[in-house]
Design goal:
Blueprint: E1 10-13, H1 17-25, E2 31-33, E3 46-49, H2 53-57, E4 65-70, H3 84-89, E5 93-97
Parallel strand pairs: 1-2, 1-3, 3-4
Antiparallel strand pairs: 4-5
């Protein structure tokens, strides 16, 4: 049986040091994870990252907020590590999204 925590948890989901640093500079702090394990989540938690749509859709029914790290990367910047400074220069932002799966 899953043991409930008394406090709400913010989960920072990224394997990228630049993204983690960028989020910290924006005031987002929490438990950093390289990938999201939904079994760790409970109602009231907040997840911040850049997750696939199918994973995001699983969060709302759990009562978990999702905040997306929005990045407008150029084709040359895709697949490379970006620093926190570069993310700032690119106009990265963090926005809350609610995604639901439709039948």
């Amino acid at each position: 049986m899953k043991q409930l925590r008394s406090e709400k948890t913010t989960w920072i989901v990224s394997r990228h040091p630049g993204a983690i640093e960028y989020l910290a500079r924006q005031g987002f702090r929490g438990k950093q994870q390289g990938h999201l394990d939904p079994a760790l989540l409970q109602a009231g938690d907040r997840v911040i990252g850049n997750l696939p749509m199918s994973m995001i859709a699983r969060l709302a029914p759990l009562g978990v907020e999702y905040w997306h790290l929005c990045i407008q990367a150029t084709p040359a910047e895709r697949g490379i590590e970006l620093s926190a400074d570069r993310l700032h220069e690119m106009g990265a932002s963090v926005r809350r999204f609610l995604v639901t799966e439709q039948p």
